[in-house]
Amino acid sequence: MNKTNLINPRHENLVDFRDRIGAITRLAVPVSMARLSMLVLVMVDMAMTGHFATTELAFYSLAHAVHMVCMLIGVGMLIGTAVLSAQALGAGAHEECGVIWRVSMLHAFVLGCIFAGLAQAGVWFYHQMGYETGLADGAGDVVAVLNFGLPGQLVYAASILFLEALNRPGPGLVIMIAANFVNAVLNWLLIDGDIALGAEGAAWATTISRWLIAAAAVIYILRMKDAHKFNITGRLDEWRNIGKKLRHLGYPLGLAQGLESAAFASLTLFAGHISGQAAGGFQIVMTVVAFCFMAAIGVGTATAVHVGMAIGRRDQRQMILSGWAGLFAITIFMAMMAVAITLFPNALARIFTDDPALLAIVVPTLLVGAIILVCDGAQGVLMGALRGAGDVWVPTALHLCSFLLVMVPAAGWLSLRTSLGTPGLMWGTLCGVTLAAVLLAGRFHIISKRPIGRL
User: Does residue 455 lie in a domain region?
Assistant: First the structure.
């Protein structure tokens, strides 16, 4: 009897599913580490600023909340770089990849300059939000410096998204590790030391580091051994059409990133209305949650790449397996992180501050933060799977419903209108991310049943 006839189709699916998990994990680990290294820049800024002065930490926290909205809108506008490059690679159209990168670079620089210009009105913005004069002036000065580094940050993001689509995440990780050493040294010189710029010094350290990583990423791509294969410096054929596709993906993805980051920034602003210490404490908790969420970004990016490559090959089965494999992988990881945070909340909080009053805010809020991780990771990866498939507008609408219409009102009411205080912000967050995960899972199920085709 022919043994191949005895193969169980269900077993074959399980083997392929396991292989998809392995492939996604191999790409996700260095991608996550690179994203984590970006966050470490912020964590080091916050830790060193927090130990310098609690007031300076409040300046940095409020500034960073607004700065992140700008940065994530910009990165969202550029995510099409990875989607288009992965689909081109899967289809064997290697020469299109370099054109996609160069068009994306132009978009990145222009977007960064726009956000840098807008940030010069930072002091006015914080005054309009009703903060007391000292807090508004301090936060406004810091956000202006942070956004000055956005053109560099977005050029780096475009370059790394391109490399990740080519399944080459290593250079981005190496660049960010080096940047963290540079940033730490600059913080030591600028925050305290003889200059003692406090939060503004931390912002300058990060801005300088971001321009350096942009230069490093561009130089690496230009010097790749197979740069000619990918048309890195050749003719810009179809650049107008590629730019149109990039913007077609970028508008909704940038909007989705902006809505989500604006929603979370509003939570920090709510915390600021509780007290300056609450703003600093909540930002510490969000930093720890974001630290864990870097895994979701890594797995989501890897999932988007594998979904995109499968679509480029017109392989619907692999597209479906890649999407659900990414969700499975992040669920396991986030559950482990939630257990770790629940077991060691005090130790994690003391990384950022020794202030007893601040610790009293951070620890209970951190315990609630652990609860949101699984659903937060799930919605992040599902969004990656959908953007890999080129589905952008409906997921954006689902984000709008989940974060702006559910999370923000719930968090505001629970934190400001009940006795929960700062932990109420995280309970509201749980409502939003849970709804987002459920809605996006349903959307991916629908998309996976439709005929597929390259953008």
Answer: no
Q: Around Cβ 389, how many Cβ atoms within 10 Å?
A: 26
Could you give the CA distance from residue 323 to residue 307 in angstroms, rounded to a whole number? 7
Share of the chain above pLDDT 70, in %: 96
What whole-number distance in Å separates Cα of residue 449 and Cα of residue 443? 10
Tally Cβ neighbours within 10 Å of residue 188.
14
Rounded to whole angstroms, the Cα distance separating 280 from 54 reads 8
d(Cα 306, Cα 27) in Å, to the nearest integer? Answer: 10
The number of residues in the chain equals: 455
What's the chain's average pLDDT? 88
Contact 311, 323 (CB under 8 A): no
Long-range Cβ pairs for the range 177-182 (8 Å, 24+): 177/37, 178/216, 179/37, 179/41, 179/209, 179/210, 179/212, 179/213, 180/37, 180/40, 180/41, 180/44, 180/209, 182/208, 182/209, 182/212
User: 372: domain range?
Assistant: 11-447
What totals of helices (H) and strands (E) does the chain contain, helices first?
A: 17, 0
> Distance between CA 166 and CA 68 in Å, rounded?
27
Q: What is the mean pLDDT of residues 373-378?
A: 95
Of the given ranges (103-107, 129-133, 165-169, 400-404), which has the lowest mean pLDDT? 129-133
Q: What is the pLDDT of residues 135-148, one digit of tens each?
A: 888 889 999 999 99
454 lies in a domain?
Answer: no
Task: Please tell me the total count of domains within the chain.
Answer: 1
Residue 90 has pLDDT above 60, yes or no: yes
Residue 280 lies in a domain: yes
pTM exceeds 0.85: no
231/43: higher pLDDT: 231
Is residue 225 included in any domain, yes or no? yes
- HSE-up of residue 230 (Cα within 13 Å, Cβ side): 21
Orientation of helix 170-190 relative to helix 9-52, angle to 10°: 10
Tokens for 36, please give them. Answer: 């984590």
